[in-house]
Amino acid sequence: MGFFERIFGRYKTTSASAGRAPSETQKAKKKLATQVYPSTFTAVPEWAQNLDQAHVVQACLEHVVCKFAPHIEIKKIMSTRTGLDGNLEPEYEGIACDCGAIKNFGKQVAQRDGYVQPYRYVNLGHIYACCCDKPRKCTFFSLATGQDSDLNKRQKRLG
Fold first, then answer.
1. Element at 8 (helix H, strand E)
2. 20: confidence class by pLDDT, cuts 50, 70, 90
3. pTM of this prediction?
4. How far is CA 152 from CA 21, 91, 105, 136, 138, in A?
5. How many CB atoms sit inside 10 A of residue 122's CB?
6. What angle do CA 138, 32, 79 make, to 5 degrees?
7. How far apart are CA 103 and CA 107, in angstroms?
8. Which helix (H) or strand (E) holds 72?
9. Nearest to residue 103, comparing CAs of 68, 63, 58, 148?
10. Is the pLDDT of residue 29 over 50?
11. Tens of pLDDT, residues 71-112
12. For the chain, what are the domain ranges?
């Protein structure tokens, strides 16, 4: 083996290593981004059992019990990734909701889940379980009311 072969041999890439897919550790290091909070609630309330998608939004607005005034509508949320054709990929299509609690605490909850980009919306299962049934189940609601109670305690101490 000659002198030049030793030097240039270090910089050669083999065909097997050039076409490899990213390893699991590289995927784990890459921070994911999602705009819709992944809800685990799946139960549909009886008032929404036989409604079509066009009437579900109005029915949800009529049954809202959350004090943070959720804005419910049919959305097509695009991701930040582009597809093979160069267009943005759709991340979520369907009924989604945003409110003041999600806007204020979406980043904090997303960071806790390991994401970089804040949550901006919740899906229909979360709307049924939290916005229209029991707001205490909502992560964003509990963070917002916790901060409100802390602020009230501080104001009582000062005043």
1. helix 3-9
2. low
3. 0.71
4. 53, 39, 18, 19, 21
5. 29
6. 85
7. 8
8. strand 71-82
9. 68
10. no
11. 999 999 998 888 889 899 999 999 999 999 999 999 999 999
12. 32-158
